[in-house]
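Now for one specimen:
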Amino acid sequence: MLNMVDRLVPGVTTVTPHARYYAVHALVAHEAVGRDLSGKDTQELLRRVEVALAVVSTHHDHEVRLPKAHGQDALAGVSPVVLAEAAQPGKGGYSSSPWGFWRPYSASERALGILEPGGSSLTPGPRSDEAVLRASLGPLLELAAQEEIGDEAAAFSDPLCLCTAGEAPDGQWLSTILCGVGDGPTTPHDRDRRETISLLARVLATHQVESLTQDFTEAVAFGEFGVTDEVAASLSITSAWQGLLLRNYVVGAWRRLWAWLVNQIESFMPAEELGDRLAAELPNQTVGAFVDDLPSSIDGNGHTAPVEPALRRSDWPSPCTELAVLAIGARRTKELEGDSLRAFIGNERIRDRELSPLWMCRRLEEHRSQHLRDFARELVRILLARAQRIALAKSQRRDDGSLWVPSRVRSRDGHLFAVGTEGSGDVGLRIDQLGSVLVGAGVLTNATGHWKVTERGWALLA
């Protein structure tokens, strides 16, 4: 899942929500090179600039909906902000990291060529335009050089706030990089990112979109849109996105089912009882009857039917719902074709692995006559054994000689106990973060609560 997301959305991650930070970090890189700063001095400059950005962003009535500036909450209610104190890493500062919030952005900035690809330091890359960056963000350097920032920050909020980047030179510069236009050679990553943005833009043009990831998922994964829409059908990446989105339901089902099981574990519970608890949530029927009773995963026109989101909205008990989603995923291994199928089942090295859709398909077929509750008990044994193997493979010896085992479920003498709860959220697809960055770069807008493409966005994607 993560490898496919990285391929389809290069240059954006789940922790890179702001377009302007790409430009800010590039500007700091140019300033550090121009002044021949040491690594320690570059860190200090970076932190002071990020503090200045957070302060000015609190003094603006935001024109578009964006997350808060990094470190803004830590500085809330402080006026004036003393730079030497606020920029210090650790307690009392805006960030605990010596590099502020640059590290989460660094890989994306290198992937885009904004910083030097393959490097590890804050060094300008081939696509960094120093003149544009200074024209937009030069005043940030002046604010960062002050001893403190008080009410005068309001005078800088219009040109420097996160929400105004889309109309500024730095936003326009970043938008051309993200959309893969302009001079210079392009890479496969540039083409994939441009096609993903084009697909997202087409969804926004043809659907009423309020929840970006959810609405994008349901438009691309299900129905005829990817096949009959002229633009979506022309993009080589559409089928891959369909397979990835459908696979995310499968991965999410395993995560939810495992989280449910972990939450059932009481102090020193017999392992067999955990299987019994899952069995008690399931209907009294065979595996074959359970699978056959599920809704059709193909609609009347031969397109993928939105069964997975419908199941998630159903009244079924949670583990029963997730098992149904897994069964639908198994069925899709025989229904999808081409790039959709390849993205859904993975490459040849991993497609037959335990818990994969193909693996689940075989198990359901081989155990059609078995009672569903017995099938569930066996599934719990498989999950527990798998969890133990993974935890032991990742275990490490501490300095004091004890063994650190990264698992929330422990087993002793056939009994289980839990040392925490498991997360049950879906794998991040980066669509929300991509949308946020594109808003900051002036390609999209969500000012009215509905996502739309701006005029400049359409011009870049034409």
Q: What stands out?
A: The longest strand covers residues 409-412. The chain has a mean pLDDT of 93.
